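Go through this one:
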Amino acid sequence: MDNIEELEKKIGYTFKNKELIHHALSHSSYANEKKRPGGSNERLEFLGDSVLSIVVSDYLYKHLTSIAEGELTKLRASLVCEKSLHIFAKQIDLGKHLLLGKGEENTGGRERPSILADAFEAVIAAIYLDGGMEAARKHILRFIPKDLEHGCKKAFSDFKTVLQEVVQKNPEEKVEYVLIGEEGPDHNKRFVVEVMLNSQVIGKGKGRSKKEAEQLAAKEALELMGYEAQ
């Protein structure tokens, strides 16, 4: 249980039911190998995803009062995506505490972003079940940047990143940028790019460089999806 106590100190929460945090740290490879009665942390991950979403939504709604709904949606997506959860998990060195099967252990599972992100959500669920919503809220808000309002406008100008964060909530979906043409003389050339989602065109952009054209294609895609791209 030393492993559990060390993690409790890092997250600032002591579990009444230690089995919950043990369950949250149990990857499917470990659960299958050990034939763990309670199974892996996947069901906790499911619950933790919902708790995380409501806490972040509530925080953004109450603290960013001048931000429109579309921008709030994009900001929430950027905070709950795998990339962010991976960063949060590393801040508490969660990988060190994971319970992995031998195969996963030997192939770098402790550093794998998807495993760390899933475990981070499972820990949220464990705290929620053990101590209630306020305990979970307190834990989650430790990881939310305090200068969100200052930085969000700048972040939204990177339309490719925003589009990727919106789409990656569905892992099976793939975004691709395709250069479909060039226009004008060499000294004043325009590049035309289409952005595709699972081989379907969802936006088109024209710019002085391929990068600019890709950003404008992503901007159009976001607008067509109902987001306010500024």
